[in-house]
Each structure stands twice: as structure tokens, then as C-alpha cells.
Design a protein that fits this description.
Trna Endonuclease, Chain: A, domain 1, 7 helices, alpha+beta, three-stranded antiparallel beta sheet, elongated, single chain, four-stranded mixed beta sheet
């Protein structure tokens, strides 16, 4: 005997979906996921916009770890709920009370300095109505009382936006950098850039470096560039970074 379909029910919790609120079912469509060591491996997210933010957080050297759907804010009880059991109990206590009662941020991070951050992710053009943002502001007040500042990230609708393109290139470059970049190569690049900024095409031609290695050199801080405003391409202006990774702080470029 066939079991009845469970339309409308959220998917079950599993190893790739560690948040307090599980990812909605996809009804046959491929899940949106990504792999990142900072999130403990493979994670599933609810939108392409969230996947891109996961890439940005993976690249950011200030972020030690992050988690999708990390907790729920009880807007009535003014507390943070970190387990599904706590969420269920809070709902029982509220009973049939109407109105906005819960909010779940899309990501939380633990920074290298030990501080915590949380992020709400929206796609440009789909930021939500006034009632939704009233709920966000209420949640923000509660979260700040728990030392969890909430930031709003709006992903540009233009898929060619420099941050979106570059974050994906840099995320892919980080695990490959140690295998491809030798100390003598980094020394050559730094010496070449001593006289000042240089175009990517010129550096690659003069030093006989494959263009595919530029994201690697940026990822390890051998080179720096304004990757928040310009795509990694032949016309990108590069300079020596000497280990500085400040150019990888991309999340601020999308904060509202």
C-alpha cells in the first residue's frame, strides 16, 4: 500500500541540513547546496542568494565558522531557540496567539575574534514588505540583547556583479592555493609589483603566469585588488598585498 504524499511538510533533518529550521522540500528539484569547511562540510540552503552568501563567508578571513538557519528568535518570549524541541515548546506556550511570533536568520557566524554575527539574505527586488521588515526589526532588537547583531544582505539581481563572480572564483581557489603556489613564485610576484599597480594581463604575460592562478594569488594575500567593485579579468589592477587579506572582506559591499 502506497503512503500518502506529504505535500507542504518540511524535509527531515539530516547531516547536510544542521540548522534549527530545516530546509523546505524541493518536490523533485535539485537541492541548492555547497561545500565549505567553515560550515562543517556540505550544507543545503533555500536559495541561490544564500548559496552565494555562503561563498562570501567562506572567503572572508575574519569568519572562523558559520551555520545556516542557526536558531529561531521567539518574538513573543524574547529569547533565542537553538533546538527544534525549544521551538516546539515555545509554540505550545503561545497557543493560538496570532501575529508575527518567530524569525530565523539565514546565517550566523563566529568570527576569529570570538564575536558572533547573524545575516538576513534577500535578493534584490524581493526584499519583502513593510510588515516583514517590522518583524525583522523586532528580531534585531532581541538578537542584539543576546550579542547577536543582525545584518541585512541584499544580493544583486545582476549575476555579473563583481562580488558574486569573484566570490565563487576565490572560494574555489582557496583549497587549491597550497598545491599550486610555491614560495619562489610568490616572491617573483611581489618583486614584480614593487614598483606599483599592474594590470592582470601584463603581470601574467611578463611572469608567464596562467590567468587561472590570479584568484589563488589573491586568496593567499600575495596580490590584492578591488574585487568588490571589479571582476577578476585581464583589465583588473593588481598590487602586492604582502599577506594582507583585507580585499577579501566582501560582505560589507552587500550590506543594507
Amino acid at each position: 500500500m502506497k503512503s500518502a504524499p506529504s505535500y507542504g511538510l518540511r524535509s527531515r533533518r539530516h547531516a547536510t541540513n544542521p540548522g534549527v529550521r530545516t530546509i523546505a522540500p524541493t518536490y523533485g528539484k535539485a537541492r541548492i547546496g555547497t561545500f565549505t569547511e567553515k560550515a562543517g562540510g556540505h550544507i543545503n540552503v533555500e536559495s541561490e542568494a544564500e548559496r552565494l552568501v555562503a561563498h562570501i563567508l567562506s572567503v572572508d578571513p575574519r569568519v572562523r565558522s558559520f551555520k545556516p538557519q542557526p536558531f529561531t528568535v521567539d518574538l513573543i518570549g524574547e529569547r533565542l531557540l537553538f533546538t527544534r524541541e525549544e521551538v516546539s515548546e515555545a509554540r505550545k506556550m503561545r497557543g493560538s496567539r496570532t501575529g508575527a511570533a518567530e524569525y530565523t536568520p539565514d546565517f550566523s557566524t563566529v568570527q576569529i575574534d570570538g564575536l558572533q554575527q547573524a545575516y538576513e539574505v534577500k535578493l534584490q527586488g524581493y526584499e519583502g514588505n513593510a510588515d516583514y521588515w517590522k518583524k525583522i526589526e523586532r528580531a534585531r532588537e532581541i538578537m542584539e540583547a543576546y550579542c547577536f547583531p543582525l545584518h541585512t544582505i541584499v544580493i544583486p539581481a545582476d549575476e555579473r556583479h563583481p562580488i558574486l563572480v569573484n566570490a565563487q572564483l576565490l572560494k574555489a581557489a582557496i583549497p587549491r592555493a597550497r598545491d599550486f603556489l610555491r614560495p619562489d613564485l610568490i616572491d617573483r610576484v611581489e618583486r614584480y609589483c614593487e614598483s606599483g599597480p599592474v594590470l592582470q594581463r601584463t603581470l601574467c604575460e611578463e611572469l608567464q603566469i596562467p590567468t587561472a592562478w590570479i584568484p589563488l594569488l589573491l586568496a593567499v594575500g600575495a596580490l590584492q585588488a578591488d574585487v568588490a567593485h571589479f571582476r577578476i579579468c585581464s583589465s583588473l589592477e593588481l598590487s602586492a598585498a604582502y599577506g594582507d587579506l583585507g580585499h577579501l572582506f566582501l560582505i560589507e559591499g552587500l550590506q543594507q
